[in-house]
Each structure stands twice: as C-alpha cells, then as structure tokens.
Amino acid sequence: MQPLAHTRLAAAAALFGALLVVTACSGIGGDDDAAATTQAITDDGSTVIVGSGLPSEPAAPELVSGYEVGKELVYARNYMVVTANPLASQAGCEVLADGGSAVDAAVAVQAVLGLVEPQSSGLGGGAFLIHYDAASGEVQAYDGRETAPAGATADYLRYVGPTDRTEPLPSTQASGRSIGTPGTVRMLELAHQDHGDKDWGPLFDAGIRLATEGFPISGRLAGAIAGAQQRFLIDEDTAALYLDADGRPKALGAELTVPAYAQTLEAIATGGADAFYTGEIAQDITEEIGRTRSAADGSPVTPGATTLADLAAYEAKRRDAVCTTYRAYWVCGMPPPSSGGITVASMLGILENFDLSLYPPTPIDGEGGTPAVFAVHLVSEAGRLAYADRNKYIADTDYVPLPGSGLQTLLNKPYLQSRAALVSNTVSMRTAQPGSLSAVPLGTDTTRESGTSHVTIVDRNGNVVVMTTTVERGFGAWRMARGFILNNELTDFSALPSDADGPIANRVAPGKRPRSSMAPTLVFRQANDGSRGDFLMGTGSPGGSTIIQYVVKTLVGVLDWGLDAQQATSLVNFGAQNSPTTIVGGEHPNVDATNMGANDPLVTGLRAFGHTVSINQQSSGVGTIIVSEDDGEPVLTGGADPRREGIVLGDTFVP
Questions:
Q1: Torsions phi, psi for 340 (to 5 deg)
Q2: pLDDT, tens digit (0-9, with 9 covering 90-100), for 532-565
Q3: Which of 83, 147, 172, 452 is catalytic?
Q4: DSSP letter, residue 86
C-alpha cells in the first residue's frame, strides 16, 4: 500500500466529511422538470455544489497521483454521463436532463473540459468518438485526429532543415513542428450534424459562463500547472494565464477566468466550426505555430509549417468501427489512425483462447479485488503479442494500408489462436515478435503517446457516445491561441522515417494523421443468431499508449469476472506493452508497493514468472457505463476512475 497517500485521503475524508454517497443532476428519482443542479451529498447529510472550491467537493482536495478509496457505483434510470471533471459532467448532465442527445452532451462536455482540464484535451487538439444509434442499431466512428501540414517532410520532427540536421528548438515537443492541425471542433460538428437534437449554439453556454465568471482550480489542474511552470515561459499568453505575476504557479482553489476562451466559444457557437478553421482564430493558430522566438528570453524556436490553407482544408471523417466478437459479446472500437480498436480486439482475441473466468480477483471488494497472478500473466502476454503487431503494422490507413486483407488478416480467429499458442503457462516471453503478415518490408515504431481525457454518455433514448480526446502531452506544446492550448500531437509520429527493416508505417507525411492508442469502446450482447444485439457497456480511458491496457483490464473485469462498472473501473491497473516490463499500479490500495513490491503476492508471483514488474503509480481515467437491472427493470450503472477527479451524473437514484 501507499501509506502516505491513503493516510492523506483518509484524513481529508475525516476532516471534511467528504465521502461521496450520491451525485445527482436533476434530483434523486430523476424529476425531469427539476432544475439541473450538480451536488455531492456528504456523509453528514449536507450538500456541496460541485465547483464550489470547498474542500468537501469531490474534486478537492485531490492528489495529483493517488487513489480515492470508496467510490461507489452510481445508478440512473434514463441518462448518465461520466467525465474526468465534475464541472464537465455537470455541463453534459444538464444537456441530457433537458432532452439533449448523447452527442449534444459531448459538445457541451468538451467545451468545458478544454477550460477546466486544459492539460488533457481541448479545442486545440483532437478526438475520436464512437456513436451508437439505439433506433437503427448503427455504430459509427468519427475521426477528429490532428493532421500534419502540407509542408511537412519525412524529417520534419528530427531536423530543423535539410542543411541543419539538429533537433527542432527548444525541443521537438515545444517547437512548432509538434503542433498538428486540430480536429476536435470539426469532428464534433460532424457528429452533431448526424446525431444532434439541440441547437449547436447553446451547447457552449456552460463553457462560456465558466470562462467568463470563473471557476476554482481543481487539485489535478493545480498539480499540472505546477509541473509545467517552466515550460509555460515559452509563451507569454500561457504564462500569464497559469502563473501569478511573480511567476509562481496558480494554486488549488484560485479563481480562474479565461475571457479569450469565452470569446472563442462564442465565435464557434454562432459561426460553427468554420469560425475556428478560418478567419481570426485560424490566423492566430498559424501565427503561434510559426513563431520563431521564445517569450521568456528571445531564444530561437523552430516554427512549424502549418498555413491557413491547412486549417481550411481539415476534414473530420466518418469511419467504420472495428467490431469483433469476444465470447458472448461484440466489442466495437476505433479504427486507424487509432491503434486502440485493433489492439484491444487483438488482445481479446488472444485471451479468448483461455478461460479467464477461472482466475477472478480475490477477494472481490469495492475496489475490484486483487487480480490473480496467472490472469495478469495471461493478459500481459496477450498485450506483448498485440503491441508487437501494432508497432509494426498500424498507422493512418489513408496512407499505409494494413497488411494482407486488413482487419481480416490481423484479427481473424485462427491467426489470434496461433498467437495465443505462443503464450507459456509458466514463463513470460518478455518481448514478442510481430506476426509475419506482410510481404512489404516495414520497420517498427515504439513511440509512446501521453495525455488525454475520456467521456462516456448515454442519453434517454439509449444513444451512446464514447469519446477520447487529447492535446497529447500535459498542456500539449505549452502554447496557446485565443485562450486554448495547442496540441503537440505530431510527436506521436515516428521521428525516424525508417529503420534497418524498412520504412516505418507511422512516419510523417503531409496531411497524415499520427497513430494513436485512444480506445473508446462499446460492448454489445451477442444475439441468438450471432449478430450484434443489445448495448451493454461503454468505456475508455486516457493514458497515452497505456490506454489499451486500461481498457482491456476494464473489459475483462466486467465480461470475464462479473465486476460492476465501478469495481472494473477501480480494479488494479495491469498489463504490458511489448517490453519485459509488466505494470501493476502501485497506487491501488490492494497493492503493497512498499519495498519495491517485495511483500506483495501479485508482484512476487509475476516476478517468479519472469516478468520485470513496475509498481509505478498509474494515472488512468476510466469512465464506464453498464446497462444493468434493478427490480427487473433496465437501469444505467456508472463508475468513475478513483485515480482522477471525475464523477458520474445522471437522473440518479438509490436502489
């Protein structure tokens, strides 16, 4: 266990009476005519309005990394939203309470997230969204991934220029080269055109109000600001917003207003996405990307090649979701340029060859229990095999096709069965080789992504949105335009265009979208005829390239071990990318991380299998909604990750 972290959490709960019992959007019992408010009910029976800044609200005090023990499953009758921030959950829930669709709520949520959680997502970044239409049964993926500018070259990320073969300044991530053409706004507009019920403009009201009137800085945002303090000095606007006049980071509870962000939202609300991709906002974006000097000391900054034409030409895309069977279920995920859907499906297809139900967590408690050693071994080995294929074959398929027959080659049952046969029952393979799936020589890219936020929403008509949204690293490129952070998403490309084995699929090219690991996921029951049946579950997580592991852990927790939405979300994070290291989240109360895990049975058991075990604290942000039953009636149940400050809201009730 982590004595200090857990002691601080327990002390905070005892001092402020902040054990969260119920959260509500439109009142207990879901009175649709009630004014939409968001409040926490504490253990002494008092209420605390979310966003109040008081210590007893769910978002504060909040450990930047840690674990909030005791989060409870939330029930709702008709609609529900889970986000990583209470104010964002409130904005989405108010839209749902007013009869808005899941996509309407997602627009409102993103407008607020970019303000209250700018380190993770925002207007200046990208997103992937999967939508389920309950009436038609259609599953549609929406691609809002950032793109490289038309002027990008194969060496765009590693050299200043053809005659200056040094790294972009002050670093690739902080240079203009890292900033891709943002996609989130255009993607949300496309999804809203397809599935919105409410007018576009009013969906931005909550974000505009908070940016204008102000909101208290939450614990997670305060920690992120402190961590980026020196990085902000590259840009005077970012420094002025997040640092005090003396250069110190703004602290927990400080009131933050962002008038420029409100003006940007107002422009988008009235002018649609065109107001973002053309005109003054687009001009400011390109000027910031093209800047050549640091605000701090005037030192050189390598500019990016993005032009107004790049922004005007940006297109969000509808894509076919990656849908495969897993046991008695259908699982649908995001296709390329995300690797999330394919890699999750690959891991599940390998695990399908093992009866994981024989190895449940023990004992199962409110935190999900302690995973069995053999189960973690199997899931980690499946991860190594799936990531090996991911690293070699998956990239933006508009530029580099998948090997062979595409999804059928990567995800067919016989192939995954052959991959499963490589898993030993007694020893870890440590590092896996990719399958021989292509006659075209290809290199391998192990670039790891960072950042992100996740949203899961179900509306009163049963429509569902799972959306993962990002600016890449914490605060992206640490630079902003018009009140919003600009991404550094292009660093998700391989800086090397090739290696000794051949060209790398995820290399930079003009207009190309960098590979991602974002994995918004929908689960359906399998109908009697084998087709996709009723919606069961939506989930996803932030976490960079570790997202895939967080999502698979959650899916296995529900589908194989029968955990509820909160237990599966809270469950110990575990898994592996294609390296000897297996993660076991040391922040979890069921893991003894003292003495490098030497006293923890799970950790020592894995080491006996030959795993190199990391017990570093994990910062997942899983948000899960599952259709369950209460007295024979279908209800929604939701769980928010105790490792972040998110909450579940809806027309909640106590069963």
A1: -60, -50
A2: 999 999 999 999 899 999 999 999 999 999 999 9
A3: 452
A4: H
Token pair for 401: 């096709």
Inter-residue contact 514 to 56 (CB < 8 Å): no
SS3 call for 397: coil
**Token reading at 287:** 């000027």
Q: Collect all residues with Cβ–Cβ distance below 8 Å to 648 and sequence separation of at least 6.
A: 23, 74, 76, 80, 81, 82, 89, 623, 625, 638, 639, 640
Buried b (16+ CB within 10 A) or exposed e, 131-155: bbbeeeeebbbbbbbbbbbeebebb
* 456 counts as catalytic: no
Cα–Cα distance, 151 to 450 (Å, whole number): 25
**Straight-line distance from the first to the last Cα atom of the chain, in angstroms, rounded to the nearest whole number:** 32
176: left (phi over 0), alpha (psi -120 to 50) or beta: alpha
User: What's the mean pLDDT in 183-201?
Assistant: 98
E-only strand ranges, 158-300: 215-216, 255-256
According to DSSP, residue 434 is labeled: P
The total of other beta-carbon atoms located within 10 Å of residue 419's CB is: 24
DSSP H or E run through 612: strand 612-614
Other residues' Cβ atoms within 10 Å of the Cβ of residue 408: 10
Mean pLDDT throughout 254-276?
Answer: 98
Long-range contact pairs involving 595-602 (C-beta distance under 8 Å, separation at least 24): 601/370, 601/373, 602/370, 602/371, 602/373, 602/376, 602/572
**Is the per-residue pLDDT at 165 higher than 90?**
yes
Asked whether the beta carbons of 470 and 436 are under 8 A apart, the reply is no
Buried b / exposed e along 117-129 (16+ C-beta atoms within 10 A): bbbbbbbbbbbbb
pLDDT digits (tens, 9 = 90+) for 406-421: 999 999 999 999 999 9
